[in-house]
Structures are given as structure tokens and as C-alpha cells.
Amino acid sequence: MDKEKRDTFELLYKTHYKELYIHALSFVRDEEEAKDIVTDVYEYVWKNFEKLDSSVSLRPFLYSLVRSRSLDFLRKEKTKEKFLAYKKTFPEEEEEYVEYEQLIEKVMHIIENMPQQTATVFKKCFIERKKYQEAGDELGISINTVRWHITKAISILRDKTSDIEMVLLYAFFLKK
Q1: How distant is the alpha carbon of residue 10 from its chain centre?
Q2: Average pLDDT rounded to a whole number, residues 109-120
Q3: Around Cβ 86, how many Cβ atoms within 10 Å?
């Protein structure tokens, strides 16, 4: 990156950091997390600075990124809280393990009863841990078709499991 663009980035940072921090703080209500979010946004902008359109104001774009990342953080925190609350309901580990095994058995049964292509796509992405593009390439379908099948599979799982079971599934499948 040349000196002019670096100077432009520094000016962007100095001009907007404080207001973006306050914006993030209004969502997450945690000073350190708000700083991390704004830092992540600026890191993203730095990495993609060459691609950004310099003819438009970046301020709305920065606000949008901060808002999006703040909401992502809140979603993850809510999932964590639900999982921890659920986990407290089990007094013994053996009981927890049995419950977990029953849930996996239930989910596998649900998956086996999904439409064949939806089940295959879901297994590739969440059980075999393949990226959507990899699964699409292996199955000869587009990434959008993979996304459609994943959305359909998650919808089926939501319909056939409780909220707490879905939280456990998210926690299990997001451990990539």
C-alpha cells in the first residue's frame, strides 16, 4: 500500500475510531469487547482497503460493519448463555452423556428421514465438516443449492427438536 493510501487509512482511523467504539458499546455494553469489534472492523478495512470505492464515504460502511459484528457477538453470547443454563440442569456427567447420546441418535434419525439430497448435503457440511463449496463440487451442485439444502435441513431440525436441543446442536456443530 502506498503512503497516500496509508495516510488516508490513518485519517479514517483517527476520525472515526471513537464514534465507532461508542456505537459498538451501545450494542455490547462491554468496553473491551467494543474495542475488539472496532479493531476487527479496521483490520478488515485495512486488508480490503485497495478494493474499497474511494469515491463514496466510508463512514456508513464502517457503522454497518460495527453493527453487524456487534450483533454477531450478541448472538454468540446468547447461545453461550442458553447452553450454560441448560448444562446447569444436569447434576451428574453420566446423565449429561446419556442425554447427549440420545440427542445425537434423535438427530441422526431426523437426518435419515430428510429428503435424500438435503440429508446428503447436511452430512457433508456438518458431519464431515466440509465447506459449502467442497460439498457442492463433490455433489455437482452450486453453492447456492448447498445453502438452500442446509437452510431446509436446519428448518426440519428446528421443527423436530426443542429450543434447548437446537442450542446443543449449534454448540456441537460450531466446534470446527
Answers
A1: 29
A2: 93
A3: 17
Write the CA distances from 20 to 52, 55, 62, 66, 101, integer angstroms. 19, 21, 8, 7, 45
Q: What's the rounded Cα separation, in Å, for the pair 115 and 53?
A: 44
Distances from the Cα of 107 to the Cαs of 17, 60, 156, in angstroms?
Answer: 45, 42, 10
Q: Which amino acid is located at 26 in the chain? A: S
Residue-wise pLDDT for 6-16, tens only, equals 888 898 899 99
